[in-house]
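Re: weekly structure request thread

Next one in the queue (434 aa):
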Amino acid sequence: MLENSIYTLVFKSEDKYYLYNSRSNFFSEISEPLFTALDCNDYSKLPQEVIGELKEREIIVEKDYQYDFYYRELLNFNAKNNKRHTLSLVIAPTTACNFACPYCFEPKKNTKMMTDNVIEKLKDFVKTQEDIKSVSITWYGGEPLIAFPVIKKIYKALSEEGMPKIESQSIVTNGYAFNDDVIGFFKETGCGSIQITIDGVGDKHNKTRCLKGSTAPTFDTIVANIGKILTRLTDTYVNIRVNIDKKNYLDFIEVDNFFKSRYPDNKMLSVYPGIIRSETEDKRSLCESCFTPSQVLEFHELLRKEGYDWNDFPSRSGKGCMMHNIAGFVIGPEGEIYKCWNDIGIQEKVVGYIDKSELANSSLYIRYCAMSIPYNETCKNCSVFPICDGGCSYYRYRNMFEGCHFDLCSPYKDVEQLKKALLDGTLDVRQEQK
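Done, posted below.
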């Protein structure tokens, strides 16, 4: 028995009829008879060739096979996350920082620096990982460049003969200490991407991202360092993150214009809005000042009005993160292992240690890796499952086990939001797919 796929949407707008399928991301204007047939789930008056095309595009499916796509995706998800050929390491050589940002976790945690002994244990840990052919490293912190000598020691240890090849490097940094020595190191060893946070232009940035102790400004130094990076690390993507919420969202436009005026044709530089996730005092939901998923789309609408080519037309999204990857680990400065970047420095979120074969917290490891995946009965029956990234698994875990109420769903779950995204600014797409 044939029926509409749960991923099929038909609707009318301004005397025109439309068909969208999130499984194939197909969107087209359609005839009224086809709209009526799909809207009523009655295909008896449709020509067989039309029915055949609808089946081929999985716009209509056999009722017994309605959830095949969901389960195929689940199988692929599990297969991908159980591959062990590439070891993904987020390494925090220190939890210390040279900045005094008011929204940062670091002041609430003990600051540590990785020792030579821990570096040797890290090397042994990598050696013991079965079937690993290559290693991907992201340097994180704290501020990782405070521990630049440690970074060099770690890289040297993991590059020794007999070790898996270091396939890629990236770094998340405040950019202040990105001096000539650091640039020279990454010029020699390679760096795929650098993320640097800018909280506004000039004094706006300096108010929130000042040096610890002296509260000295940092903006001019960071901008100068970015210029050096773009000049010397020509194969490295530089991603400028601008932290925004409802109060300061216009800062993104200001920062973007600032860098566009300086580097108008540089394809290796991008500025993007980083949505702040400040939590309420009870730590169970986001503050009122934070954007909801739907409000993010409203922010994008504002950007379009400002002349940005920002298209919210949905796209197929991958799901999951390092939390679910059996060959992905976050390594703290004392050799402790976490499964999420957000957990660095939190003792109760340590799942193991690099010098121990047994897990320190097997229950947490299982909850993270196996129970917080973006696949459940709600997702199974969701019409926009294929175009949802599943939301942050860290917040999913907290919803499931810590009594929190974070909104993880795609804004396109709201049908009106989805219709608007499909229709707004997608003329070329629609004409191509007719």
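The chain has two domains: 1-66, 84-281+288-371. The CA atoms of residues 234 and 258 lie 20 Å apart.
Next request, please.
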